Amino acid sequence: MNVMLTSVGRRAYMVKYFKEVLGNNGKVFVCNSDDKSIAFKYADEKVISPLIYDSNYIPFLLEYCKENRIDIVISLFDIDLLMLAKHKKQFEEIGTKVIVSDPSIVEVCNDKWKTYKFLTDNDFHAPMSFLDMNEVIEKISEGKLSYPIVVKPRYGCGSISVAIAYDEEDLRYLTKKANEDIANSYLKYESSVTTDKVIYQECLKGQEYGADIINDLTGKTQNVIVRKKLAMRSGETDIAQLVDEQNIKETLVRLGKTTKHIANMDCDIFMVNGIPYILEMNARFGGGYPFSHMGGCNLPKAIVEWAKGKTVDKDTISARTGITGYKEIYITEI
């Protein structure tokens, strides 16, 4: 079996995980829009692809998958997910299975306003969110909301331009800055569909958690692994402890059954006075997955087995609790 990871970026560990699973029974292929990817060092085969929004991107991938007999395609980047989800059937026609959720769920995850509406419409707790800065100012003057306020791109990822406003002056400046950052980054592509490019959220006070909601390839929820975030760096979990938080787990099992997403959904949660509030949903492997893997969960193996039509035992997608993991920084010569 051959596996291809698209928009692989710096997630070399995902290449290693899949190579361990495949052994001598397949290859791991990777692609990225440039060669500045450490994952290229570890993959069996690598290729530079057109940019995601280039009209040649999907035709390029289809041809590459056909030529190299790729069985599974998995994207590691939010923007890429929607593009692949919309062309999933074309890949199936050449014998390649794209491990991605339905476009409607990917859109809910990528658009933080749709995330908020989806969560509240389905009776999940989420931080109060707004698209209109003036509405935020009005709510604060009425005493229905208070500073600090989180200001961030509506279609953001990687903590780009996420900031906290402590007063109205901050709020206005950070709104202007967020719009400028969006215009000068890849966020401009997804953000182009709306004039409301910035979202405002109440700043929750509580313990932050991350989680992997694991569904099989038919969208049935199989398990939830929860980690307590102890330190963050550039929007990703740097230090975390795997924990048994039943309140969070029960909430996320219900979320997984509601989304019916495919494979992993990476979530951010705040526990406020014993109530789980869901902040973010990412329909892919997130930066916190290595902690689940460290604890014994092997989702890459499960995906490969499910793709073969085999059953996967619960131990394969479970993790030990009570252990703490630290990410390290290595310098690698290429």
From TrEMBL:
One of its GO terms (molecular function) is ligase activity. Residues 116-308 form the ATP-grasp domain. Coiled coil: none annotated. It comes from Faecalibacterium prausnitzii. It holds the Pfam family ATP-grasp_3. InterPro entries: ATP-dep_AA_Ligase (IPR052032), ATP-grasp (IPR011761), ATP-grasp_PylC-type (IPR003806), ATP_grasp_subdomain_1 (IPR013815), PylC_N (IPR048764). Keywords: ATP-binding, Ligase, Nucleotide-binding. This is Carbamoyl phosphate synthase-like protein.
